Amino acid sequence: MAKDIYIGEVSRNEEVRTDFFLMKVTLPSGFVEPKPGQFVMIRIAGLNDPFLSRPLSIYSFARGRSNCTIELLYRTVGKGTRILAGLIKGSLVEISGPLGEGHFVTPNTANIILIAGGIGIAPLSLLAQNLCRKACRGKDAMTFYLGAQSADVLVGLNRVNKYCGNIIVCTDDGSAGMKALVTKAFQKDLKKYDPADTAIYACGPRPMIRVLSDMLGPEYFCQVSLEERMACGVGACVGCAVAVKDELGQKTYKRVCADGPVFELKDVIWE
């Protein structure tokens, strides 16, 4: 089902790390407050080329008296995102969203664990913001495991510091934090987290999510935000389908854009 398209004005679009950009967009007040894990489709306003519409996770959201603002943290990886990176203050963009299904936040859980790899920090930052402001979760109740290839591509740490008191940083080359894969750092601590009182949320590259799947038993509550290539963003093209278990445990396919991007980790089938 198509969502309304809003015209937004870019108020900031800065390179915060090499090839990583932070865009802030002012939108009309009618834009619905996003759930953590949801995303938008964005393109330059008036541009007729539909292939230049790109899905970006919502990094933060704020509502003012007469408008609202969203922040989008993204990495330039192709033609579309390179075009977005060239937008200057005052540029107009078309925003469709918020799209997809967001996270379900478990109430009264003692341990909230967030695990991000690379640009996966974007949707989890919105989740941490939501947990602090709406679920009244204190900083000490949340532990954030953040992984990156190196310090040069480590983004979003300052933002996460606002919401999480326990942050474990990992880099592949040891240039920041621990020299380890983020999944290895989490595995070392796993015994500390009682499955009955722990909620885990993760977003990152597919290999990272698969390692978590092998590591966690079904007794753990774990939701993951899957990263897949999307074309339409609303489920019409079925180009981002993934294999999952249905309610009876049978194999089926669901669309990451419309049925996700958030799924229960125990339901994802790795082919």
Give keywords.
271 residues; globular; 37% strand; 5 helices; 7-stranded mixed β-sheet; Dihydroorotate dehydrogenase B (pyrk subunit), domain 3; alpha/beta
Describe this protein's structure.
The mean pLDDT is 87. The chain is globular. 42% of the residues are buried. By secondary structure, the chain is an alpha/beta fold. It has helices spanning 79-85, 121-133, 157-163, 182-189, 206-215, and strands at residues 5-17, 20-28, 39-44, 54-57, 60-63, 67-75, 92-99, 111-117, 142-148, 166-171, 178-179, 198-203, 221-225, 241-245, 251-255, 262-264. Strand 9, helix 3 and strand 10 form a beta-alpha-beta unit. The chain has a seven-stranded antiparallel β-sheet with strand order 4-3-7-1-2-6-5. It has a seven-stranded mixed β-sheet with strand order 11-10-9-8-12-13-16, sandwiched between helices. Strands 14-15 form a two-stranded antiparallel ribbon. The protein has three domains: 5-99, Beta Barrel (Elongation Factor Tu (Ef-tu), domain 3); 111-227, Nucleotide-binding domain of ferredoxin-NADP reductase (FNR) module (Rossmann fold), CATH 3.40.50.80; 228-261 and 267-271, Dihydroorotate dehydrogenase B (pyrk subunit), domain 3, CATH 2.10.240. Helix 2 (121-133) packs parallel to helix 3.
